[in-house]
């Protein structure tokens, strides 16, 4: 089944590229996607498969069976001659293609396009425990799962993802914490038909498409100026570009329907920029101006009145205070004000946290995330523990593109540690964000800890391009699902 789906996706990609006068090989070359060799077939695909390299043996436990956890397990399986690997994961759909949620929410994908059974991607020989880790005893190399069973390990990899903390927002307390994959009942029951939506859960992304269509239809009537409001919280989040992507796509659907003049779209980010990399920030600001989209910095969503359709933001700013004679400068005083904003469509990017049973445990940190050396991804306190993906405390590292680099570093360093060698593999902070700016356009933002563009192809990275749309919609999903999850991409 997987092979048939992969071939179907590649056939669609080839047909689209043919219209552009490009072969798949040429397109990947232009995109700098060397890790896509397995999609080419032939000798390159064979070269992408790691040879069995190490005879060292130990019991490895991976907490989390999503993209990060399964990719790591697959590469370990490819790299060890006698692997002993256990994945702890309660969700049977944990390896859903989460970057596709934005496309589900805009009517490009359906839910079925992004949902997969975890068991179909577990590498041969890897044991799957359908439960979750609830307690950690790292001093004794043990953890406890929900059933009460104790699991021992020699080496532990934590790749459990994060939680969506909707309950932190007043008016949404009933939702509490939610997951990106799993039951969305509390989200959907609470939001109902209020115009409030979120792409950060698969079923909620489906509902977002329904709400977007209603918003567009209402705008088409011209009875009033419709208000679309989009938020970005005061916490780290997965895929920092997604809150803007769904706004761009709403704009695109309004233009398509001839109703753009009857809607006002406004972005309310907690931060003071559109993007942490100045070049991409400047490009996004210009794109917003061209599309007539508005923004207000330093606004954090703190309350939602679902009945009256009012979003309340904590607006913050600095004011000059008293003169400090010693420092010879003015004190700067942080001010706050509640700002009430009416909406017809409200897209919420919820605050995000590590699952409390992990973040608040002995392996967590004061801020909840798993503290690791940002280059080696080894735990700062426990040498036999590594972490990657959304839950790891690394700067700008909460995207699938980050995981594509991280899981190779973890495997290389774990094997080096098992063999008594220095940890030489380094994660340099590479992150890629295919920022969808329109139906048919993507700006491929690549960067690292230098906060400078790091394009892997000789094209201006701040430009929106159709080729990146083709790769986003047709190539990146099979690359992720059948490349990374096999440990080859």
TrEMBL record:
Signal sequence coordinates: none
Listed GO MF terms: FAD binding; sulfide:quinone oxidoreductase activity
The protein's name in its UniProt record: Sulfide:quinone reductase
Matches recorded under PROSITE patterns: TAT
Organism taxonomic ancestry: Bacteria, Pseudomonadati, Campylobacterota, Epsilonproteobacteria, Campylobacterales
A GO biological process held by the record: sulfide oxidation, using sulfide:quinone oxidoreductase
Provenance organism: Malaciobacter halophilus
Pfam families membership: Pyr_redox_2 (PF07992)
Residue ranges annotated for the FAD/NAD(P)-binding domain, each copy included: 59-187
Matching InterPro entries: FAD/NAD-bd_sf, FAD/NAD-binding_dom, Sulphide_quinone_reductase, TAT_signal
